[in-house]
Amino acid sequence: MPFERTVARENSPSEISRGIAAMLVEVVLFVSSASVAKYLSGEISVSVFLLFRFAFSLPLLLAFAAFQRGRNLFKVVDSRTLAYRSVFGIIGITCWLLAVAAIEITIATALAQTLVVFVTILAPFLLGERIGVRRWAAVLLGLTGALVLIDPTRSGWFEIGIIYAVAAPFFAAVMFILLRKLGSTDEPVTTSAYYNIFGCVVFAVWCAFSDQNWPASNETWIWLIGCGIAASLQQFLIAYGHKLAPASLLAPFQYFSVPISVFVGITVFNEIITLQFVIGTSIIVASTYYILVRENRARSRSRH
Hints:
mainly alpha
């Protein structure tokens, strides 16, 4: 559970409703931040965007971490896993925003849903988990949906944006698996603080030693500050949502990022939704939802 560990208990209907609402707002912020990155891509690079995204997220995040942990704010046990989590997290978010900047936000968001597929593929190797035949079949179905969405039969399909869009959920999957390991040793609020500090330092160094276009207007600065604050709020909302409602109930609401991105893609970026997009995305969502259902059943059996 991000930011807080609590003793398992039965949540009331009103708590569950608030938890779902928190996750829906988090999804809106997720797509909104990506949309701003795409909107600003003609003025500033993804590196500059991420520098200020990490920098402007730190004040609220560090304040909350200090309030929750006090003197133990920066105390960690598994520093090696934390380092790996930070590296893969930064690679994942960089690939995600590079994909959004290069291709349609609708396609990038749909391919991002394959995160669950990659977690399932990697879990046996990194966590030693056993995956049943049905979940492996769902993995193959999800990969098929991604192929339908990408459409390798069309000319010019192999482009850098597609590579980034596939790489992003893969590296994010590694990060989430590492977060599972960290959850048993370290406080999530501390690992989040380290991750954002590390990201800020990495992109500050990168931007300092590379030729970058810096924000030239007050409007751009406002967008960047807003995205930094949104990044902090996303982490708070994830923590709050998982505190009030079971993760198994909240997970499917991540799929709302797809219709939101479709709305943004059509209204803001004049993207066109094709039948192939609808079919491929539907296959991905169906397969990953089935994987989540099977995983929840497996965990439920292991607890009894």
